């Protein structure tokens, strides 16, 4: 079979909903923009991605441990981190369409147009100028640049723009039993600060020596004004972050090392090298002295799935100043106290899910018949094996259920006897099940079954006694971990 035309984002969204991966949140009430629920297959895939990331961090590295910090934190945490004063997006409205846009994304889109037209120098110059204006907080200059570049609203096709304004992205709420006594607190906009405020707790209780890392998976919340592109940009999302504490002066070596290690991880879970690239930041965040994104080629272009940042000592130093509690580490090797520098790796679990799903979605055609399947790494597939009796009679169904029972404690196995076996194969292909086990009349004679392989549709005869070992080996997360 030859590959069919390229996949659109709408293909992905439709498939995700139809086959139980992602649903619009509270859809019976017409949904809530930029909020999604993971269905029965989506949650399995997402949990597998979180599990392999967690193991890659905490199991493969002797000097990385994990925590699970609260979503609610003392409000001064966000003052120290810079989020209260500086966690803003520059927004601009088109007066004719009444639509709101992120000013930086309009300019990045124009730069992408230049790059696609082979005008790389022009693209770089535009991004550099945008970075300079935003860094200087020259919002009037940003508006002038948008107009000078001839950027128009995609809906009204006019450049009738308002001034650029900053919007803080944090959700606020109140804590306290009586409204008058309630204190303003925030839903965390990132998971990193939960790690920083626990730096000394982990270091002392675990007797950790620099360099060491703290990993965390957790929900974060951002009031995105312009949320789009399915699960790529959501208001409630999940981060997989690791903060690596190092001796000042060594951070750039560790930055280079983690940059390389994280790209290797994405390749190990099945994302192809040609669909991945590094993108160095033109404009650095206030806390960083180096930053790079690992980008994946989505149907809507290359976009960030992970950021690697050298955060210096910004966070711990600010928490020390505001809390009046020392955030220092005594390094016995150099007999010195210091605030460690930090190298951060931060992956969006939802973005990684979307990248893996887009990459797996496969359409093939032989000119007459089209085949659609999810080419997921066997260790990530929601269902690892499906057991299908050829017919329901003559003891085949009972034998198939017996096989399911023998396998399901080792890996997720399902039973399906509904419709012709060809339709059942297709049903499993559509959710990415790597192995279908057919139970037929020969099974009743010699206790062998046919394994059908999802990607090739090839079949092989295997004794029932070898199924657990054979399939178990292929679907184990070890297959991914050993290649990192």
Question: How are the SSEs placed, and which strands pair?
Answer:
Blueprint: E1 2-3, H1 9-18, E2 22-24, E3 36-38, H2 40-59, E4 64-66, H3 76-80, H4 83-86, E5 88-93, E6 100-102, H5 103-116, H6 120-135, H7 139-148, E7 165-168, E8 172-175, E9 183-186, H8 192-196, H9 199-205, E10 212-221, E11 236-246, H10 251-268, E12 276-280, E13 290-298, E14 301-312, H11 314-323, E15 329-331, E16 336-338, E17 341-348, H12 349-360, E18 361-365, E19 370-374, E20 385-389, H13 396-407, E21 413-415, H14 421-431, E22 435-439, H15 441-446, E23 448-453, E24 459-463, H16 467-474, H17 478-481
Rounded to the nearest angstrom, the radius of gyration is 26 Å
* Number of distinct beta strands: 24
Contiguous uncertain segments of 5+ residues: none
**How many separate structural domains?**
3
CATH topology of the largest domain, by name, is BirA Bifunctional Protein, domain 2
Helix/sheet category: alpha+beta
Count of discrete alpha- or pi-helical segments spanning 4 or more residues: 17
CATH superfamily membership of the largest domain: Bira Bifunctional Protein, Domain 2
Strand order of the largest sheet: 4-10-11-17-14-13-12
Using the 3D structure, state the CATH architecture of the largest domain: 2-Layer Sandwich
CATH class of the largest domain: Alpha Beta
Q: Average the pLDDT over all residues and give the rounded result.
A: 92
- Shape verdict: globular
| Straight-line N-to-C gap | 32 Å
| Main sheet attributes: strand count, strand direction, barrel closure | 7 strands, mixed
| Percent range of helical residues | 25-40%
Our estimate of the beta-strand percent is: 25-35%
